[in-house]
Design brief:
Layout (H helix, E strand, L loop, with lengths): L1 E4 H14 L5 E7 L2 E8 L13 H13 L3 E9 L8 H5 L7 E6 L7 E8 L2 E5 L1 E4 L1
Parallel strand pairs: 1-8, 4-5
Antiparallel strand pairs: 2-3, 2-4, 5-6, 6-7
């Protein structure tokens, strides 16, 4: 079970809304499975249905994380026109299999749809998410 503070869920959703109809991308940081920070990154991918975090922003974030003794807990992105389930492209592009993959669906008629996955033996496994105040 993964516990994510509501404030960070709200920030992910707001980020996805701001970048719509393009995918957004960002990172939740912390220690172990404890989420302590949220960081949006710029999507530099030209295709609006894919994401690639700006390399310079990512390097700077990772530098700050090391200085603060934090690590990547989750990497999130949005699916502007699809469900909150990983695509084949998402599977190919997973570079941090130990981190939770969070997907925010935007085509949900005003209802929050966010799902989490871990990569295990070449496939994504659904993870239980708990949003706390």
């Amino acid at each position: 079970m993964w516990v994510i503070p509501r404030i960070f869920v709200n920030k992910m959703l707001a980020h996805a809304q701001r970048t719509h109809p393009r995918e957004c991308v960002g990172v939740l940081t912390g220690v172990g499975e404890e989420v302590r920070g949220w960081h949006s990154l710029t999507n530099v991918e030209g295709d609006s249905h894919r994401f690639l975090a700006d390399p310079a922003e990512q390097i700077e974030l990772f530098r700050k994380m090391r200085m603060q003794g934090q690590e990547v807990v989750a990497i999130y992105h949005s699916h502007p026109n699809g469900p909150a389930t990983p695509s084949a492209y998402d599977l190919e592009q997973t570079n941090y299999p130990e981190a939770l993959t969070l997907i925010v669906a935007m085509d949900t008629e005003g209802r929050l749809e966010i799902n989490g996955f871990l990569l295990r033996e070449g496939r994504f496994e659904v993870q239980e998410l708990v949003i706390c105040d």
